[in-house]
Design a protein that fits this description.
By secondary structure, the protein is of the alpha/beta class. The chain has one domain. The chain is built from 13 helices and 8 strands. An 8-stranded mixed beta sheet has the order 1-2-3-4-5-6-7-8.
Length: 298
């Protein structure tokens, strides 16, 4: 291996080991700039505290010209609408098709810079687990969407904890659902949008931490009337879930009254299952870019 390649690999390894830190990215940018690589400019622009209109225009030009190249091998298992942040891919939709894709690219270190992913759904059961792959190299994920049974199972049975804060999904498998609500692998989870039985969500290991929640049968979860909003938010939500339904309708009203229609653009309000898309129309939450800009709901 040539010295240039060794140097690049070493610098990239630092970025992947510390994806939350700008410093390794800027060191890598300096190295690239010395060699006339345009990616140095992208990293500098996206790491800047403020971006002028001229910088934003240049950012778009660089990504239009080089974006696919900078994805490297991962371009083969990602849809085209990948968002770069701080010079590296951070938001995308996977398209793992089968076990061969997983074997070839699941362990690629480039997944470390991804913060948000929407998973693929296989047309056949034979490739369902491959399509829903979530692996150790994706530990930096904060938001995970379109999570069905196979991905929930992988999350629950992982060797170590995830950093996931927001999750959209659901499963018809009672066994998988039970493992998911009992797992201790999601210590950061606070925002949950799921198609799961309310009684399971109420006794989940992470229920007390939840600040944002939607389920397929949200009114039943809190003992509210059929006309109640299906999304609640606020720091007291988790405590009330663990305590069970509150029989006092005035207290329920205060909880449910905290919910409001999201300011997120319609194209960004995506649900991860048909039930959530068709039955829960009011979403809450402070997270933006629920889908990549312009993307259709999954």
């Amino acid at each position: 291996m040539r010295k240039r390649e060794r140097d690049a690999d070493g610098l990239l390894s630092e970025v992947y080991r510390h994806p939350e830190d700008d410093a390794p990215r800027l060191v890598y940018a300096d190295w690239l700039e010395e060699r006339g690589d345009p990616r140095a400019e992208l990293i500098a622009i996206q790491c800047a505290k403020e971006r002028t209109p001229a910088m934003k225009k240049r950012e778009a030009e660089l990504l239009n010209k080089h974006g696919k190249e900078w994805l490297g091998p991962l371009a083969a298992v990602l849809l085209k609408d990948v968002e770069f942040r701080r010079g590296f891919p951070a938001v995308g939709r996977t398209k793992f098709k089968d076990a061969r894709d997983v074997a070839a690219l699941a362990d690629h270190p480039g997944w470390a810079t991804f913060e948000e992913l929407t998973l693929n759904v296989a047309p056949s059961k034979d490739n369902a687990r491959a399509a829903q792959h979530v692996g150790p190299t994706m530990r930096n994920l904060r938001v995970l969407r379109r999570v069905h049974a196979d991905a929930l199972d992988q999350l629950a049975s992982a060797d170590g904890p995830w950093r996931i804060e927001e999750l959209w999904g659901g499963t018809d498998s009672a066994e998988v659902a039970e493992r998911f609500v009992q797992t201790d692998r999601l210590p950061s989870l606070t925002r949950l949008f799921v198609d799961l039985p309310p009684e399971l969500v109420r006794r989940a290991s992470f229920a007390a931490r939840l600040t944002h929640l939607s389920t397929d049968d949200f009114p039943a979860l809190l003992g509210a009337g059929a006309g109640a909003l299906r999304v609640a938010r606020g720091p007291a939500l988790g405590r009330r879930l663990r305590a069970g339904a509150d029989p006092d309708p005035r207290r329920q009203g205060r909880l449910l009254g905290g919910a409001r229609r999201s300011s997120t653009p319609p194209a960004a309000r995506c649900a991860s299952s048909r039930a959530l898309r068709t039955r829960s129309r009011t979403w809450c939450g402070s997270t933006t870019n629920a889908c990549s800009p312009g993307a259709a709901p999954p």
